[in-house]
Amino acid sequence: MGDRLFVVGGKVLWLGLLVVAVLLPLLAIFWRGFSSEAGQGGGLVAARELLTSANFHWLLGNSLKVSLSVAAIVVPLAYLFAYALQRTMIPGKVIWRGVSLLPLMAPSMLPGIALVYLFGNQGLLRGLLSDNIYGFWGIVLGEVIYTFPHALMILLSALSLADARLFDAASSMGASPARAFRSITWPATRQAVFAAFCLVFTLTITDFGVPVVVGGDYQVLALEAYKAVVGQQQFGRGALIGMVLLLPALFSFGVDAWLRRRQGDAMSGRAQVFRPLPSRSRDGCYLAIVLLICAALLLVFGMAVYSSLVKFWPYNLSLSLNHYQFEDTAGGGWLAYRNSLTLALCTALIGSVLIFTGAYLMEKTRGQQGLNLALRLLSFVPMAVPGLVLGLGYVFFFNLSGNPLHVFYGSMALLVVCTIAHYLTTAQMTATTALRQLDVEFEAAALSLKAPLYRHYLKVTVPICLPALLDILRYLFVSAMTTVSAAIFLYSPDTILAAVAVLNMDDAGNVGGAAAMSTLILFTSGSVSLLLAWASRGALRRSQAWRQTAPGQ
Amino acid sequence: MFKPLALVAAVLTAFSLNAFAKTELTVYTALEAEQLKTYKKAFEQANLDVEIKWVRDSTGIITAKLLAEKDRPQADVVWGLAASSLAILDQQGMLDSYAPKDLDKIGKNYRDAANPPAWVGMDVWAATICFNTVEAEKQGLSKPVSWQDLTKPDYKGKIVMPNPASSGTGFLDVSAWLQTFGEKQGWQYMDDLHQNIGQYVHSGSKPCKLAASGEFPIGISFEYPAVQLKRQGAPLDIILPKEGLGWDIEATAVIKGTSHADAARKLADFSASPAAMELYKDNFAVLAQPGIAKPQTELPADYEQRLIKNDFAWASKNRDSILAEWRKRYDGKSEKVAGQ
Amino acid sequence: MNTALTQPGAPMKVRGIQKRFGAFTALDNVSLDVAAGELVCLLGPSGCGKTTLLRCIAGLERQDSGELYLGERDVSALPPQARDYGILFQSYALFPNLTVEANIGYGLTGCGRDEVRTRVGQMLELVGLLGSEKKYPGQLSGGQQQRVALARALAPAPSLLLLDEPMSALDARVREHLCTELRQLQRRLGITTLMVTHNQDEAMLMADRIAVMNNGKVEQYATPQEIYDRPATPFVAEFVGQGNWLPFSRNSASHAQVGGMNLRLADDAGHATSGRLFCRPEAISVNPPVHEENLFPAKVREITFLGNRCRMSFELEQLPGHPLLAELAPEAMPRLGAQDILVALPPRSLQVFA
Q1: If 0-12 CB within 10 Å is exposed, 13-18 middle and 19+ buried, where does residue B77 land?
Q2: Nearest CA in chain B to A135
Q3: Do residues B161 and B220 touch, judged by C-beta distance below 8 A?
Q4: Model ipTM?
Q5: Cis bond before residue A314 (omega within 30° of 0)
Q6: What is the pLDDT of residues A80-135, one digit of tens each?
């Protein structure tokens, strides 16, 4: 009986949460977009007007140009970087990997702010740039930095699957390294390249953090949605733009799923691990590339930290901490930072428990086919919905006059729910991957031994999957610290967040304060990541006794 | 046996209730963030049973927010919003007319004409140009003395100004130009100016901050940040253009239907009181209550005379159409010809 | 808690189990009786339904129709936890983060710590792994892991033991040894056991009775001896052991025409008027010292030396194009002088199939 409560009750609860947190807000966008309430800018007529207006075409053109450029720059760079880490013998791989994670630790505004300090009219390296940083190139550079780690993650995982036997066969047949690449490596990683391209494109087209800071008068769609909702309270118009921004994500999600089905299994079960041969010239080249990219990242982030300590740029370069005196500034101050910590902790702790248990119930229990299918579908929706659009959905849904849940609007609880929903899919995939490594028959064995399933979950499943759990914790914490695209619509003066404070300070002209708050976010995320990585290593080491595989196994 | 327990419980409850007896007032404002702390402290010291919860954003955004919440107002009172915006709210029937205690001391031009008034002014803020002298020397720019000067081709890409849709300062600039130059000439002026604008920003004070840091040498802003930044040592020249300064009144109004009407009125009283005027004095040169203001050393003495004749009724009536036209021309078009 | 090593085994009945996966019929009206204490093997190629049947009995799959009885209880609709069995999976499914002791004690809920420890000790002694309590599964060899998994399954003293291809993860050398051990253990405990395997050697070695399955049906359910000597269908005949097929047509009640030869059949060989004759290779005598019935000339094609016996491929002169197999002891080799030989197909060894 306890089992039934755990399994069926758990699934129903999870379904209810997903419906409220994912499905209904999404539906609310469509409803808002097509309802022709006066002054909201919505409805079919307004939609037609919007889609045919020259302004919209200009915005769309800008957004497309920016996103395509960013993707075209980032994906090859990330490919080279990933190749260097996985297929060469360059030294210091751990360091380069660590540096590449920097952009994940701060909101997207940070690269923008740093770029202004580097290449703005009073920038340190102004001479290097012939044109103004504000505008197209500013946005592109900022987004390149911001999206780099995301593309890198996908390509790293794809390039890690290498079957040594294929390469041995190729070299014994006399194929050159270039030929081996074309015939073995490229086909295996093609799908990942496409996935990375789509991800970068979607992230860029829906981000407004960078355009706000460094875009100048170069307007993009994401910014327009923000202005429509926050600036003019035109919810209908915001919803319509939100729907347009949903399209690239849906498209790339669909094509990716289709490609994945065509590709089939990535690695044969009998593949041997690939160990690259040392090659000085090749390693030298790749090391140079990696060093260049890391140097660029360190320059940008170092500049941001430095600029937060400079008293009055550019006329008084003495160092001081007065930008960190947040009480006297606009935008939220230390309250915002504390709120962000609360949000990050709650999201990480509650989110990992919910998501991991939900993944367990979906993956490891049988029966309730319909329920399982609904859960699976719903858990993939957030992956296709950009944060901006999800935030809009939450505004529309929880702002509905008749909605009893309206009382949550502006509360920390809603922010936590929204953030968990936003980052749900990736966390869930991590959980599912870890769960799939477990023997399929564990649950059957436990059932045959009449052990209750929840006890099995706690005694066996969770300890074995602890590294994955810590991974999910870290991911959720850092994401919650740096998120802005959904939170920007859902905060109230009591629940203002650090990333939002950065935006507000930059808007008010307090760029030093914005840099300071961003640096604070950077250091918090970084420290927590390191802490959790250390904890994970400790957990792994302590469980080393049983993690080795048997000699004959 | 229960009696002493009940007594203790009653006393404790009484104490806690007393602690919670403070009314929390939701105050919407467009005041500069640096001013919020001082104003709040001053009010709460004078009214121990009220606590202010600020909701602060730039003029355009706050106005839009208030309008959007028309059917379900979240605000109790507005302290420090452009009178042009408050006039719109009044037209929508959202304000509770109330005559504060010191109304008779307030200048006639600085309050709503009706009796009792829908809004009462606090101080005036006016357009000011912030000019970075260091950058000007580096780039060989001459000092502009009039609004027309700003359309000189030397200044191409070197001027920042606030976006009138989001910033009250921006709106008062546009309104002033249209009133000073006439409608046709006004738009022509803005077309010419647009060629020189490097960026439109969202807040009224940001152009001055950008000018202070030398990012753009010329910022069209208002006097409060100009004075503050100059005091902090920024290499700024404060320029009041020849043709006259656009201006607006920061004002206070009680929202109709608020559940804390008493506390809201206390705030309205405070805002118009001489004590409050002392506060405003530090930040603004022209106050709603004449005779208190002291001239700011950084501003020329004839500051008040430079203000143009301002028709607020016209400005608030035409706000929507002015903004729509402005957006059509300058916001969201492939614009500047070259040298972006 | 029952301190006996195990409960007396309960008989198990399977009645008319039907299971389909979409359009594919995995189990087609399968019925089986397993007596108490018996070890029955489900033998068959992959896809024949043996594992599906085992999982239905375990409650891990839900049959579309049919009944299952464990002892007197109808367990057809019960979830796995409510049935009373222990199961040993192909992969053993030992919990890697728990010690051997914790693994074995896993199913012993509701017992005091001392009781659990005693019981675990008992089980370890039973499988010969006393002293390994504190080890982790990852530190044990394959054979040891199998024994721990067995001990875990038996610890709660179930009345039925299910084994899913228990030997397939082991080296060939270890396999036979463990088969014998497992069989001895099962006999000692007297627990009703059902084992799934695709390896006929294991089945022959261990089972009291074998159910040979094909395409979701039980083709024959009998002792190993009967299955080998008297296969009920051509599939069983071919699946278990080697065999020769000779096309024939009836000449009379006692004789069949094979190619150009007239063979005498045994009285109980079968009734079909035409079809194929089945004959085991070891039943064929080559160049017999004494005259035998059904003696015919043949030509040797190839001889393979297999260690303890030889396999000879030959062709009957009056049945060309039909290579046949015979098995000989190595002592018989010197008798083969040249390529031409005489082979005898004893009537007793010929079985008629339609």
Answers
A1: buried
A2: B340
A3: yes
A4: 0.81
A5: yes
A6: 999 999 888 888 888 999 899 999 999 999 999 999 999 888 888 887 777 778 88
B208: closest chain A residue by CA: A509
Give the pair of three-digit tokens for residue B113.
């004409």
Does B53 reach chain A within 8 Å, measured CB to CB?
yes
Q: Across the strands, what pairs with B254? A: B77, B96
Q: Do B213 and A230 touch (CB under 8 A)?
A: no
**DSSP secondary-structure letter at C269?**
S
The residue of chain C nearest to residue A456, with distances taken between CA atoms, is C106
Chain B residue numbers with beta carbons less than 8 Å from the beta carbon of A507 are: 58, 201-203, 206
Name residue A320's amino acid. S
Q: Return the bridge partners of C247, or none.
A: C276
Locate B183 and state its tokens: 């409608």
> Which pLDDT band holds residue A489 (cuts at 50, 70, 90)?
confident
Q: Using CA of residue C129, residue C135, residue C136, residue C139, what is the dihedral sign?
A: negative
* Helix, strand, or coil (residue B161): strand
Choose among C87, C98, C145: nearest Cβ to A550: C145
DSSP annotation of B288: S
Strand, helix or coil at C248? strand
State whether A231 and B61 contact (CB < 8 Å): yes
Q: What is the DSSP string of B289-338?
A: STT-----TTS-TTGGGGBPP--HHHHHHTHHHHHHHHHHHHSSSS---S
Nearest residue of B to residue A216 by CA position? B199
State how far the Cα of A13 lies from the Cα of B125, in Å rounded to an integer.
56
Residue C311 near residue C281 (C-beta atoms within 8 A): yes
- Specify the pLDDT at position A552: 35
- Return the amino acid letter for A529: S
Report how far residue A345's alpha carbon sits from residue B315's, in angstroms, rounded to the nearest whole number.
49
Among residues B39, B125, B71, which one has the least CA distance to residue A38? B71
Are residues C138 and A550, on separate chains, in Cβ contact within 8 Å? yes
Q: What is the DSSP string of C113-163?
A: HHHHHHHHHHHHHHHT-TT-TT--GGGS-HHHHHHHHHHHHHTT--SEEEE
For chain A, list the contacting chains (3+ Cβ pairs, <8 Å): B, C
Residue from A443, A449, A457, A460 whose CB has the most chain C CBs within 10 Å, to mutate: A449
List the chains bordering chain C where 3 or more Cβ pairs fall under 8 Å. A
Query: Which helix (H) or strand (E) segment is C258 a member of?
Result: strand C255-258
